[in-house]
Amino acid sequence: MPEAAISTTGLRKTYRDGQVVAVDGLDLEVRTGEIFGLLGPNGAGKTTTIGMLTTSVVPTGGSARIGGVDVIGEPAVAKQLIGVVPQFNTLDRALDVGENLYFHGRYFGMSRAEARTARDEALQRFNLADRATMPVMALSGGMAQRLMVARATLHRPAVLFLDEPTSGLDPQSRLALWDVVRGLQADGQTVLLTTHYMEEADQLCDRVAIMDNGRIVALDTPAGLKRSVADGTVVRVHVADDGLGGTTDERLARAGAALHQRLPDAGTPSVIDNAVQLTMNGEGILPRVMGAAEDAGLTVTDLSAAEPTLETVFIALTGRRLREGPPQGPPPGMGKPR
Ligand SMILES: Nc1ncnc2c1ncn2[C@@H]1O[C@H](COP(=O)(O)OP(=O)(O)OP(=O)(O)O)[C@@H](O)[C@H]1O
Ligand SMILES: [Mg+2]
To answer: Among 64, 153, 154, 201, which is most buried by a count of CB atoms within 10 Å?
Structure first.
């Protein structure tokens, strides 16, 4: 088996004398050639993890290796092995598009001729050749992001780090950037990216680690993660107050038990995010649930059935949504998979 592209043991970062735990003992192995995703909500510790792996944040504890090189012990060597696209635009506004690439090459020890060649190849490859002499301020968000990726890969790093590569991009630019990343992988590039878009993790990544509060709460292929929470269709049932008292969760647990009694082939119900959630298989799922609810004397106020998503996985593991939803009540459009 080839050496892991990234491996960490107990990697940890705290701030304010340990009061803020940003990353809490991360054990991670990223394989050579894979696109690996860190998926998590704001504040999960994604950027801090990338910071530690790319030598810009000094860990409080643990160890990290990139291609076998100790990131903490040999930061200068590790730096040659990594390319980074940070969460925010860090292009040099005093330089034009081509110069941003050229000087990056020079900074990484290329001769003038090598840097010129690498610049021209990157301009071609990332479809920026006709913008070479433009100021970077004149680029669209999607083009600026492409230039950041072009710059980060110019020195042929072993691992490319992308921190929220498509946040703020329009859908079309997002898809275009996914294609760029897939193209890099096809040429053997190992990629670690962070995202809070479940679709991005699902469609782009070979494996995904779901992060919350500085910890990995689940790690698998997107399909494996989804299978782990629900082997079938996820049905969510919102019901009106039955007038029997108790907390909302108790009321929903009662409703779940009543439904399950009448739907014996459904999975064990759970109460998640103010709704009863059941996993079901087969035909006519919604009519079957409506029939069972009617039989149990429950008033259904909203009902949805969807294939599990990474959002379902996150909710099942944490009881919360990836992105904060409305504070109370069933969010509108509950029926649509998000
Ligand atoms: N320099 C710092 N000083 C104090 N706390 C920090 C610092 N940097 C990060 N944190 C805290 O560490 C936690 C993790 O932050 P981090 O930026 O890694 O999260 P993230 O997953 O990248 O979030 P986002 O999706 O918002 O980018 C947060 O609680 C954050 O407030
Ligand atoms: Mg971040």
So the answer is: 201
